[in-house]
Structure formats: structure tokens, C-alpha cells
Design a protein that fits this description.
With about 425 residues, the chain is mainly alpha-helical. The protein has two domains: about 240 residues, no CATH class; about 120 residues, SH3 Domains (SH3 type barrels), CATH 2.30.30. It has twelve helices and eight strands. The strands form three sheets. The protein has a three-stranded antiparallel sheet, with no helix packed on it. Strand 2 and strand 3 form a beta hairpin. Helix 2 packs across helix 3, helix 2 packs across helix 5 and helix 3 crosses helix 5. The two termini are about 45 Å apart.
Length: about 425
Amino acid sequence: MENEFSKEELRQLISDAAIGDRESMNTLIKHYSSRMYFTARLYLKDKKRAQSVTENALRNAFRKLEEALKEDNFELWLSRIVQAEALYRIMPITEETISGTGYSNSDEIVDPYIEVPEEDECKKRIYKIMDQLTDAERAVTTLHFYDHMSLRDVSNTLNISTGNVMGFLRSAKRKMNMVEDESVGTYVAMMDKMNPDKSKTDSLPLEDVVLEEEIETEPNLPQENENFLDDLKGMVPVDERTTRVPLETLQYETVKDEEPAIIQYEEREEIEEEEEEKDYPILNIILIALIIVGIIVAVFLAKQIFYPSSASKEVPQETAEPTPEPTPTPTPTPEVVEETPEPTEEPNPIIGHARVITAELRVRTGPGTSYDQVTTVKAGEEFDVLEVAENGGYTWYRIDENQWIANNGGMVEYTENE
């Protein structure tokens, strides 16, 4: 898809959309949503999931359009947002036992005279090939052939071994060659044509190839959809187009600054520790006093038991008159030493509040995609946040014991407690 806007026109559209201009927002959606959906479909076979990824990526992009003004390639910037959203849906990738680690890229060399079809035909043929692959094979081939990542970078991105990356690529290329009238070289050429980062693709002679088969019908993406536009409208301040509103006033700015939330939580723990340290001297004095009192009482009782008074040992002589019995000395009642209760641990402080805004979100046992999934939460569910952490490009919120949810900027609305 050739960009019909000049650099100045595109910058003006983004700037107007960032302050809530409805027409500019609709123009950007109409122009770029189809290509964003294509990127999502590279990772996801299920069309509904791909549409959900596209819509979430649009929300995330419109939330931070100010950042897009600093980018040279707006389409590539959008593609990266879709990539992050799609990878979150398919991670973690399960590693497999691979026999042998040999890998050859000789079949990936593109014939400079190959006939590369137009975009609609490219999409149809790429979908046909990709839908033969597993999620792991789709992710590896997309990152390697579409995003031009090295095998080591693919390994780091998916958190799997380089041997598994090569194994998934070998398996995927075998399946590509089994698709009728396709080859790995043709596939690479078509992916290069669709890639928004033209700086990494070779210059290929392109010719029109029109087949009778229909291309895959794309889902009803939110172009000129009133409800979706109203939703996006809530992400940016609606004001006069000449008025620039600070980015921090955006309603969906879930995390204005990622670091302060963590710093504030650590400072709060330090303050609580200082307060507890201040209480310890008083508790120590009381405890020492109680020990001394206990020792005194124990010594007194021991003397009463082992060294009774001489009067109690004398045997009264028999006389005509009865000798009155000595009045027994009352044994002093030992003082009851009350145990000072140990200070109970303060419950985890609630540092903020999270509301899920994406359709579905996984809950994991720790702050990272490598942790096990325990359940899922739906859009609209709200939770108290007990801890915040950063890992793997996501902000993680602990909502319960060993329960974490992730946010890449457009999946959770987070409000920090004052």
C-alpha cells in the first residue's frame, strides 16, 4: 500500500488526531487498519483473535500519538505495536526436542527476476501458507522473514533456544514447499513486499499477477464505526484543534511514569521499617523489666520452698494449756508476667487500582510471560494492586498472592493511590 500522504500531511493528521479531531482519527484508521490486521494475521490463525489484536493495537496507538510524531515511519511504528500485542497473545512458546541443529538459508535467496504479485494477491497467498503452520512456526517465520530478525534475536524475543528457532524454521519451510505453486523464495519475496520497513528489503521487479480466486475477506474493522470512534475519542482530549493539551491529561494514560510507582512503593516500605525500628527500643525496655521482675519472683519463691522460717520447724511442748497454733505466713502470689504480643505483619499495602480494558487478559503466577497461567480476566473487571514490576517490555501488577497481570499500555487502566 503506497502512502498517499506526504510527510507533512501525515504529520498534520497525527497531530490533529492526537487532540481529538474526529475526521483525522477516521482517516488514519481507514488508511492503516487493514495493514495492521495483516500483521496480526501473520501471528494468529484465528481471524477473531487477529481482529481483537488489531483493535487493541489501535487503542494503544491512539493513546500515545504524541510519540508517533517523533517517528520517521508511522506504518512501521504501528506494526511494532501490533507485534507486541500479538506476541502477548501467543506467549510463552513451548520448546520442543529438536534432532540436530543444522540450518541452511540457501532456499531463502530470492530470484531477482521472480514475479511478485500485488498486495491483495500477496495477502491471499501468504495467508494460505501461514495457516498451514503452528503458532510457534508462525511466530518464528514472521519475526525472521517479515521483521528481518536474526536467529539469535528471534530466540531472545520468544525466550526459546536458537536450536528451537532453527527447528521451527526448518519445519515451516517444509510445509511451505508442500503448498501448491509456492516456494520459500517466493514467500520471502512476498513478505518483503508487504514489509513497511523498506530499508531492509531488496529492490525487486514487480509485475501484476491477477488470479481468479478471491482474496480472504477481512473482518469488519472499525472504519467509520461510530461506537469505536467514540471509544477512541475518549482516549484523546476533545478540544479546539488549535489547543494543545498535555499528554498526561489523556484519559487512557494508564501509567504516566513507570518508575515513580515502584519508587513510591519502596519509599513506603522504608518509612514503615523506620517506624518499626523506632518502636523496638520501647519494646526492649519493657521486655527487660518483665524479665527482672520474673527473676525476683522466682528467687523469692525458691527461698520460701528451700529455706522455710525457724518458727515453722519448732515442735510445741505439751502443756496444760493449749498452745495457740502459729498464724501461717501467707505465701505471696507471684505476679503474672504478661507476654508482649509480637507485632503482626502489616498486610500488603494497596498501592493502586487496576481495571481491565482489553477483551481478555491472562493471569500468571509471576511477573513474566514464562510464568504459568492460572486463569483469565475479562474487560471491566477491577482489582486492587499490591505490587508493580517491569519485565519483558510489560508492566506487571500483582492483584493477589502469586497472581499477576500484564500491561503494555493498552490492556489495563491503572490508577495509583494518592
